[in-house]
UniProtKB/TrEMBL annotation:
One of its GO terms (molecular function) is pyrophosphatase activity. SUPFAM superfamilies: Actin-like ATPase domain. This is Phosphatase. CDD domains: ASKHA_NBD_ChPPX-like (cd24055). Pfam families: Ppx-GppA. It comes from the Bacteria. Residues 26-310 form the Ppx/GppA phosphatase N-terminal domain.
Length: 311
């Protein structure tokens, strides 16, 4: 008997829903997939709370997810929440409101667990190979870095420096182009906050950056759109992003205000501001660690949850 599972990732910026059917042989079929820009961290993340408006947006999105899951006759629901709820003083209250209004049980996971699931998602997307790679997942609330190879995780850490936090701190005037001094301040901040990453990279010597979903997805879509192409919904989850392409995109983004960013083919409204600070972080990482290649994984946390079900 095939069983239907729903996997929900309640991110700081985006809520994701994936509905799959698994048969006893472990063959999976994706029945439904969506993402909603809830912006759960907006207005409150830097104060350590979920605002009433964000809470309402979250509940509304999950009520829709519940309807979709019922339509697909889902039997098992796995829902995880990350940085915004992890660090919110009213996180537990929001979780119980979700349970009360939608019947969905949400598990708030640690940063270490989040990193582990992201790596499992990436492993499902691509062959990693014997050499260590550096995986980077830029969320709204936290950024996960994982160093691993085909044998598994060598080092992992979640840093509370997600894009919504960086926007609040370094780039509050997002209608305007980002200023050189804002970029400089942000780079200094990363240098300071990521000392443990620097030590780990020195130890394990990864040469390739694997960017997991989010901003990296959008950069791939922008690159394809610039060539008049669209990403195929059933295409490979393992996507290249040439270094020269990233540097060209980043240089162009630095000059643009929000309206100009929004006009870029392939840009998503939900990423239009966060992509700026995220790209500063990607550029810093590539330069700091002398990485020679970027691969993009369309899979991340929710596919990591799926990988565990498949095991």
């Amino acid at each position: 008997m095939a069983r239907r599972f729903a996997l929900i990732d309640l991110g700081t910026n985006t809520f994701h829903l994936l509905i799959v059917e698994l048969d006893p042989d472990g063959v999976q079929q994706t029945l439904y997939k969506t993402k909603v820009p809830v912006k759960l961290g907006e207005g409150g993340i830097s104060k350590g709370e979920i605002t009433p408006e964000a809470r309402e947006r979250g509940l509304k999105a999950l009520a829709e997810f519940r309807k979709t899951m019922d339509e697909h006759q889902v039997e098992v629901v796995k829902a995880t929440a990350t940085s915004a709820l992890r660090n919110a003083s009213n996180g537990a209250e929001v979780v119980s409101a979700i349970k009360e209004q939608t019947g969905i049980d949400v598990e708030i996971i640690s940063g270490a667990r989040e990193a582990e699931l992201i790596f499992k998602g990436v492993q499902l997307a691509m062959e990693i190979g014997p050499k260590p790679v550096l995986v980077m997942d830029i969320g709204g609330g936290s950024v996960e870095f994982i160093i691993g190879s085909e044998k598994g995780i060598l080092w992992k850490k979640s840093f509370e420096i997600g894009a919504q936090r960086l926007l609040d701190k370094f780039y509050p005037d997002q209608e305007q182009p980002i200023k050189p001094e804002q970029v400089k301040a942000l780079r200094h901040y990363l240098q300071d906050k990521l000392q443990k990453l620097t030590a780990a990279v020195l130890q394990h010597q990864p040469e390739v950056l694997i960017g997991s979903s989010g901003t990296f997805d959008t950069l791939v879509d922008m690159d394809l759109a610039a060539q008049g192409l669209l990403r195929h919904p059933d295409g490979s989850p393992d996507m290249p992003l040439p270094l020269s392409t990233f540097h060209r995109q980043y240089k162009a983004l630095l000059q643009k205000d929000r309206a100009q960013r929004m006009a870029i083919p392939g840009m998503l409204a939900m990423r239009v501001d966060m992509i700026m600070v995220a790209c500063v972080a990607v550029d810093w990482t590539l330069e700091k660690f002398n990485l020679e290649k970027i691969r993009v994984s369309a899979y991340a946390l929710k596919e990591g949850m799926l990988a565990e079900l498949l095991q």
